[in-house]
Structure formats: structure tokens, C-alpha cells
Design brief:
Blueprint (H helix, E strand, L loop, with lengths): L1 E3 L2 H8 L6 E5 L5 H12 L4 E5 L19 H11 L3 E3 L3 H4 L12 H4 L3 H4 L3 H16 L3 E5 L3 H13 L5 E5 L19 H7 L1 H14 L5 H14 L3 E9 L12 E9 L2 E9 L4
Parallel strand pairs: 1-4, 2-3, 2-5, 3-4, 5-6
Antiparallel strand pairs: 7-8, 8-9
């Protein structure tokens, strides 16, 4: 495996390659990231994992400065997983001047849910992802379903900008108790780590209620929000949406329930794809 820090060296290393697969990450890797590497390997061609903590997607009050940087450990994990290249630029390499040109995704998708609580987040995501696409020029890119809205935003960007890139979705990797793996889980102390699984349990409860015939979606969302609050969480949203565009669902559509909530100072997100409503 080769670790590369500059765009020029990356382009030289990939010259003549026709089917590169990119797995963009911010590092501090866990088993969920490695599952995306496995998905990328199945696509064929060399696999490039990027590691870059992107300032543009952090609000001033968020954890950009304290976000774990674990490059040496990450590279060991990627090497063992069979990754071919690691692209790990520093900030001056990827943003050699202030990034005045930015990708503004449509508000109907990007300003709801995560975008409502983290204004500008998806502009930062789209801008860095497009820049990484231009650096790597992949034919395939892999994103995890855990960041469900992000996956949809990137898919729409690729489609509307006619980028010659296939977007693959990797399933969410969970701990044995059901907690979705996340780099931010490391912020949880032992007590809150035990409590954190409540978020996924609330989503499963909504799924069970829908299977039993409940169709009062707003009441199910409200009940989950109140349940989390009663257990000491600070929920931002629990929302049942249609999978196609995260808009409010109509009858018979494939659904997803998405949620974000703070447990202490740690903000966790999760989602669960549901059966179609009847």
C-alpha cells in the first residue's frame, strides 16, 4: 500500500488507471470504514482511501480541532484490509487558497434534517467530495448508508453534474448491541456507551409499529423524541421519510427513519430503512 500526500504524486501514481474506486473518509477508522473498503475491492481496480478532516463541513462550535487524527493507525488498518493507496493531503495541499468556489446543493434536500441543524454542512461535504473526485478521478466511489442524507446528496450531485462515477452504498456496520459504528462513539464514556444503543432501539420500535399497522407517523416520531428526552438525550429529530428524496411520505412508498440526538456532548446519528407504507 502506498501513502500519498500530494495531488501531483497521486495523479502520477494513478496515471493510466481506468477503474479506480474511492472511499472518502475523515480518518479515525473503525470496522464500518473497513466494510466500505471491502465493498470497494469488489468493484474491481485499485482502491484509494482518502483521509482528510474537512474544515468546510464543521461549524465554528463543532469539533474540528479536537476530531481525532490517527493517520498511522488508520494506514495500518487500511494496509491489512487490502487498500492500494491512501491519499492523505494536509489542509494546505487540498485548500492552497481560501475555497471561494463551493458546491451549493439544493435546499429541498440539503437544508432539511442534518442540513437544518448543521447549516452549510452539505455545502462543505459536496465541495470537498467534488474536489476529491477531481483529484482521484474514480470510476466508482463508496459511501456508507449510516450517513443516509449525505449519500443522497452526493448521488444527486453526481447525477446533476453528469460525473462519470458510480456511487455504491455500503450497509451500516453495527456493534453487537446494535449501535451504529461511528468515529464519534469514542467520545462516549462507559455509561453513555451503554445508553447509546437506545437510539437504534427507538428506530426498531418505529419499524415494529409500522409493521403492526400504525400509520400515524407524526405520533410515532413524537413518541420517539419524548422517549429519548426522558432518558437524558437532546434529540434534534426523529423523522420518517421516503427513501427517494427524504420528503414527507405518501401511501405505499419505501421509507427510512432517520434520527440525530446528543447524548451528553456527543451527537449521534442513525437510520433504518423500513417497509413501504400501505
Amino acid at each position: 500500500m502506498r501513502v500519498i500526500h500530494t495531488i501531483a504524486e497521486l495523479r502520477q501514481a494513478l496515471a493510466g488507471t481506468t477503474r479506480t474506486t474511492l472511499v472518502p473518509t475523515m480518518g479515525n477508522l473503525h470496522a464500518g470504514h473497513l466494510s466500505l473498503i471491502e465493498c470497494a475491492k469488489e468493484a474491481g481496480g485499485p482502491v484509494v482511501a482518502s483521509i482528510f478532516v474537512n474544515r468546510l463541513q464543521f461549524a465554528p462550535h463543532e469539533d474540528f480541532d479536537t476530531y481525532p487524527r490517527t493517520l498511522e493507525r488508520d494506514c495500518e488498518m487500511l494496509r491489512a484490509a487490502g487498500c492500494n493507496f491512501v491519499f492523505a493531503p494536509n489542509e494546505a495541499e487540498l485548500y492552497p487558497e481560501p475555497q471561494a468556489y463551493k458546491v451549493q446543493p439544493p435546499g429541498a434536500l440539503a437544508d432539511i434534517l442534518e442540513g437544518h441543524f448543521r447549516p452549510g454542512f452539505f455545502t462543505g461535504v459536496c465541495t470537498v467530495v467534488l474536489k476529491l473526485f477531481n483529484c482521484v478521478q474514480p470510476r466508482v466511489a463508496v459511501f456508507g448508508k449510516k450517513d443516509y442524507q449525505q449519500l443522497m446528496v452526493i448521488r444527486q450531485m453526481v447525477r446533476q453534474l453528469a460525473l462519470p462515477i458510480e456511487i455504491l452504498a455500503g450497509e451500516t456496520t453495527r456493534a453487537e448491541d446494535g449501535l451504529a459504528l461511528s468515529s464519534r462513539n469514542g467520545y462516549l464514556d462507559a455509561t453513555r456507551r451503554v445508553e447509546a444503543v437506545t437510539l437504534s432501539r427507538e428506530l426498531k420500535g418505529i419499524a415494529a409499529a409500522l409493521r403492526s399497522g400504525r400509520r400515524d407517523l407524526a405520533a410515532l416520531e413524537d413518541a420517539a423524541m419524548r422517549s429519548l428526552t426522558a432518558r437524558g438525550w437532546s434529540p434534534d429529530y426523529v423523522a420518517i421519510r421516503r427513501r427517494s428524496d427524504l420528503a414527507a411520505p405518501s401511501s405505499g412508498e419505501a421509507l427510512v427513519v432517520v434520527a440525530a440526538a446528543k447524548l451528553g456532548a456527543t451527537r449521534l446519528i442513525d437510520n433504518l430503512e423500513l417497509d413501504a407504507a400501505s
